[in-house]
Amino acid sequence: MSLVVVGSMAFDALETPFGKTDKIVGGAATYISLSSSYFVKPVNVVSVVGGDFDQSHVELMHQRGISTEGMQVKENEKSFFWSGRYFNDMNSRETLVTELNVLGDFDPIIPDSYQGCEYLMLGNLAPQVQKTVIERLRNRPKLIVMDTMNFWMDIALDELKETIKLIDVLSINDEEARQLSGEYSLVKAAKKIMAMGPKFLIIKKGEHGALLFNEEKVFFAPALPLEEVFDPTGAGDTFAGGFIGYLASSGDISFESMKRAVIYGSAMASFCVEKFGTERLKNLTQEEIDGRVRQFVNLVAFDTVLQ
Amino acid sequence: MSLVVVGSMAFDALETPFGKTDKIVGGAATYISLSSSYFVKPVNVVSVVGGDFDQSHVELMHQRGISTEGMQVKENEKSFFWSGRYFNDMNSRETLVTELNVLGDFDPIIPDSYQGCEYLMLGNLAPQVQKTVIERLRNRPKLIVMDTMNFWMDIALDELKETIKLIDVLSINDEEARQLSGEYSLVKAAKKIMAMGPKFLIIKKGEHGALLFNEEKVFFAPALPLEEVFDPTGAGDTFAGGFIGYLASSGDISFESMKRAVIYGSAMASFCVEKFGTERLKNLTQEEIDGRVRQFVNLVAFDTVLQ
């Protein structure tokens, strides 16, 4: 049940209608590894940071059973930095600053201790880098889940299509599914995207929940109706971490198990948005997670009169 | 279990990305009564049409057990006419023509045979007209459900607030809930709106499903992921018809029963959008409706590992 997580570790500076932050720790691998650490240990991170990265955050990761042996530290360079501002509806945002820094020439290293991992989570990165990670694993993992973004559809579509041929589960949002497929209907989009390689597709719809498809079936998980979404940064990565973490802990990669994994991912994401950055993901209890999953169960539960 | 349905009966001319229609029969009372007729008989319609209305449609309603005794016919006037065009995403539309015609001075008449009805569905109309209907019923129905639109929030907010004080369930879409409450969060919006009178609130989110609130609980019903939405006209009214029709047939107006009613309403709406106008609502079978409800059950069903 070993898990390897690949992605950025970064600084983010955020503005939401509720306030703004200085540089705080963010990045796909940060959110994914924290979220999955509530389900499986060790979580093995492959990433790259600069000499400026926050050492106390790395210690927190270690305390949560996350290995950073595959995290390269480039002492004389700076960590990836992203700054963005959310609009009032919290569903749209604008990027203010993107500084690639160490991510610009990221050449992922897989420590020997990570070899033989059964579960691989490819967080949002250049598709060529994601592919390199797959190639550098000596045995193909039992399950490869991949997240990506419209950015790569715009500038590296061919490489993206090469990479998604190699994976099992693709996780993207609704607009990205439409862009990748050229179909407005998500049902049609799902068919076209699965024909590109992945046997499973997750379409994230933010506050409107998430859809899980395989060739024959579809499952829908709502998002919890929340009073406040404080900061949506990292919600998709936190979802992915809960999703693959649950699968790795259960060892069951059937469609039925993936449904439960989508619910656990949604529950983790619902915590993430309650505070700025990773704050809410640092000290969750099993009771809190189980309680949140129960809220999902109750949200959609009804008895039918059908036999 | 008698049901009275109030609303427009009209001609619509529609343009969607899939084609356009000449004048076809539409209107809130048309969709609501057809949809509810699959659950309860008689459905008693209160409406007004001109001498130009389609008599064959009235005969279809009679065949489906719908009474039109409360439908006034103004022989020398014209029926309400609405023309609109849907954009590619089918979630937004523009109004091309609105001709109020007979609806301009609609003074609803409640036939004696309708008195004593237990269920009242107030379809979208001027709030003052909706209020008049309540006042003209000698006994207050067991359950009053009301639909309205942003149009009335813009031009008749005070009358709207007076009317919603008198009802049990308000059914509006997400943008209307935000406009009426001044809150972006739907959870906060729901609290404010229920404080205005209704004990229950339904927030319709189109392709993203519907939320049902009471003071303490929330229930979420997804919309079916469909390959094609052919024509969304009347989907909200069809939902309302299935909702109140199911409640009237069961006689149970508890929150648990309303959850099932939301699922039946969603199932009926999923048929409505498959063809232009009321076409798909004319000849459904019980097997088709039950099959559709089963799809909703399966869409959200998962087993948890929680005890």
Automatic annotation (TrEMBL), chains A, B:
Q: Which InterPro entries match?
A: Carboh/pur_kinase_PfkB_CS (IPR002173), PfkB_dom (IPR011611), Ribokinase-like (IPR029056)
Instruction: Name the domain of life this protein comes from.
Output: Bacteria
Q: Where is the Carbohydrate kinase PfkB domain?
A: 18-279
What keyword terms does UniProt attach to this protein? Kinase, Transferase
Name one molecular function that GO assigns to this entry. Answer: kinase activity
Q: Name one GO cellular component term.
A: cytosol
PANTHER family attached here? Answer: RIBOKINASE, SUGAR KINASE
What name is this protein filed under? Sugar kinase
Q: Which organism is it from?
A: Pontibacter flavimaris
The beginning of the lineage is: Bacteria, Pseudomonadati, Bacteroidota, Cytophagia, Cytophagales
